[in-house]
Amino acid sequence: MEENKGLIKGRSVQKSNVMKVYIKRLLNNSLIKRCIEGYNAGIGSVFMLHRVGSPASRVLSGNRNMFVSPEFLEETISYLKSKGFSFISIDELYETLTRKKKFKKLISFTLDDGYLDNYVEAYPIFKAYNVPFTIYVTTSFIEGNTIPWWFALEDILNNSDLLELEDGNRISISTLAEKEHAFFKFREVLLTEGNPQKKFEQLFVNYKDSIDLQKYAKLFLNWQNIETMNNDPLVTIGAHTISHPVLKRLEGPAVTAEMNDANVILQQHLQKPVEHIAYPFGGHVEINKEVIEHAAAIGYKTGVTTLSGNVFMTHRNSLLSLPRIFMYEMDVPQKIEDAMFQNNFVTNRGKRIIKL
Ligand SMILES: [Zn+2]
Q1: Does residue 8 surpass a pLDDT of 80?
Q2: Domain NodB homology spans what residues (predicted)?
């Protein structure tokens, strides 16, 4: 019985692999590619980035994914410019959607969390090409009073061969494969909690003394960096909550506090309204309609998710759940067009209007 099941499963895996190869072949046909692009492009794309720089050699893949090299960023901007794309701020995207101006080939760059490299590496490139961009800031990372657990977890995994958890459980992490596996496994566990930091501190209480909050705070912008960029019309500072929680798993008042208090703190520093937000983690598992309603009630004009897709005029009815295109390091800048038009078409199974 078990064997039979295995056989059937094996066949269906084979079938879906054949299907994938077939779809990939189809997507390599330039006429089909152009058709999908025409259907799936909408008015433009909001790019999602995190870090701009080169990862150190021991960075685990879960954190490595966040990096785009300065060279790739520059080449991609230059390539997209040569292809006739225009770069707009998130405010201009809002204006385009709400005033029903019909445009196409628009790109809005956004960077999440508020890393120092956004100022040191990315800002000079955006400035040189006159490209507007938005940084969504998690205020407690700037103030250094919350652990960005993905870095602390990586350090713990890299610095030991055996994990000793609070419940006495011991897990071997001597090989790179084991460390990679453990990173994603713990990530999954932490994201089942509203406050993953708290859960992290509980699970890794044995490592409490080795966690250097100041070390992690240095990876993030300081208020002076933020205020300097805030004075540049190219830069929009948006909110990314106080502590980077899983909003969907928090109670209503806590959801509002995370999004509202971040807004208040940012406004105090920037001396202007903060009207745009990015939801931490931002997918179906981490946000829902109630979260979006809280953001609307606070007064945010736009909200960006991590759902993959392009922006269409109909998104004027769902400004607080805009999809984005994940920008990662690719071997050639031309591949960004596959990420924009083809890849999400496949993952979304042909559905083009993506919202929560
Ligand atoms: Zn984030």
Answers
A1: no
A2: 105-356
